[in-house]
Each structure stands twice: as C-alpha cells, then as structure tokens.
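agent: user wants the structure for MmcQ/YjbR family DNA-binding protein from Paramylibacter kogurei. delegating to structure tool.
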Amino acid sequence: MDRKTFDQYCASLHASENVIQWGDASVWKIGGKIFAICSNWGEGAGNISFKCSDLAYQVLTDMHDIIPAPYLARAKWVQLAAPDALSDDEVRAHIDAAYDIIARKLTRAKRAELGIVVT
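agent: tool returned. relaying tokens verbatim.
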C-alpha cells in the first residue's frame, strides 16, 4: 500500500485526524491517540506502522518483512519493512483493528464526543 492509499483509507475512518510530524510522517489519530503511521525515514521510506493486539503482534512479527516498530514495539506496534509484506486488504484490516484498539482506550466521554460506538 502506498502513502496516498494509506492516507485515503485512514481518512475514511470516523473521527480520524491526520498530522504531519517527525520528518514528514503521516500520523493518524483518533481522539488524539495514534493508531497508524506512514513514515518517511530510514531505508524504504513510506513504511507503514500500526498498533496491534498482543496475538497479532506475535503472529505478524514472525512473518517475513514485518518487524517490531522502532520506538513503539513495547506498545505492540509493527512496521511493514517492505511494501508487499501484506496485501492492501490485509493492511486495511489491520488498520481497522488498530483504530478499534485505540478507540476502546478512549474515555467514554471522549468516545461520546466523537460519536464512536464500541461493541
């Protein structure tokens, strides 16, 4: 998935916000908390990173071309080290999961303010 497609998909998620920071990285947030990043630093600029569940983190980091995300691995984030590490559909599914994980961590008041319903 390229950065343009990544940004378009993240923008389609309810109440998501985009900030450009850390050397032109596209950082996507919900309620002020980050759920996905498309970075522009290091080899293979344009690497996508996202928050994972504990199980997804274990599975994904055992796969070829998916690594613990630099600086964020302790919080169960992964980084796609190659553009074809996952299909676009798989990336979308993991972004959805990351969004849900972060949305669930928001306070009830914040979720209500943003119109987010968690099931």
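agent: one observation worth passing along. The chain has a mean pLDDT of 92.
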